[in-house]
Amino acid sequence: xxFDRLLGQDRAVERxxxxxxxxxxxxxxLFLGPHGVGKRTAALQFAKALNCAERPGEGCxxxxxxxxxxxxxxxxVEVTAPDGQFIKIDQVRAIAERLALIPAEARxxxxxxxxxxxxxxxxxxxxxxxxxxxxxxxxLVLTAPSPSLLPETIVSRCMPLRFVPLxxxxxxxxxxxxxxxxxxxxxxxxxxSQGRLRPELRQGAGKLMVLRDAALRTLEELDRVDYASLAExxxxxxxxxxxPFVLECMETWYHDLALLGGGAEESLLINEDRRxxxxxxxxxxxxxxxxxxLEAVLATRDRMQLxxxxxxxxxxxxxxxxxxxxxxxxxxxxD
Length: 335
Known about the structure:
Blueprint: H1 10-21, E1 28-32, H2 39-51, H3 64-71, E2 77-80, H4 89-99, E3 109-113, H5 121-132, E4 138-144, H6 152-155, E5 159-162, H7 168-178, H8 183-191, H9 199-220, H10 227-238, H11 243-261, H12 275-281, H13 287-304, H14 310-325
Parallel strand pairs: 1-4, 1-5, 2-3, 3-4
């Protein structure tokens, strides 16, 4: 693999090539952008390009150094990722211990801290000491969604490099290249990708399609569903890990209704495969009501990130959506 196969990040690739070409590789870099857009892949490719025996500055993907990096067994290229919810101080101390050793074979050692925003306070403080006195011939690459999620003392010591959300055609190409999803599931995954390669869609798009349709059936039946049935359904969704995607499905549905009602092209719809149902909803859920429903979903999503009764919060949302589609505004949404 060379930089040419890192799709959708032309500007970032151009900067990485320039950094290598001018011979001024920084001791610390910060790859910024949404999860699933190629930051970790780019960091590994950067390590290959710095150490490739056949195509220095680019990476061939087939020499011993490139293959070891791909397989995760290169002695001088390592990835540290969260152990559970956080990157812990023991992991950062292990990085420091390895950096104290002379590189075994690499021209330039590369240590990657993936999802660096997950460092707890103790780990971040310990990592800062490493950044203050970086070893020679070593580059530390941190990945994170935003600099605001890291201490300014760490951000200020890194060269930033931004990665952008992926276009739909890029995601389509990447998923087709993997060849794991049937056509219908791949189209669904692309539409719901939100600009990134999402593991849950890559591995279980079929299950999520079923979950999306169940959520839409609940929305369709709100006018006639009884409270007990609604509570039962909400309990099923919040009893496991399904509720975030259920909320996302509701969010994209009302987003699509607002777009369609505003005259947007149907090709922009996330739920384009359900465009006939969207058209049928339009007369009773015009753009203003769709936007109010979207506001309710987003507010509920924020509340459910906190320590609240998730089943009750989802039930309340569904009842609010019922009122909003009838042109009423629930009391909790009034100013």
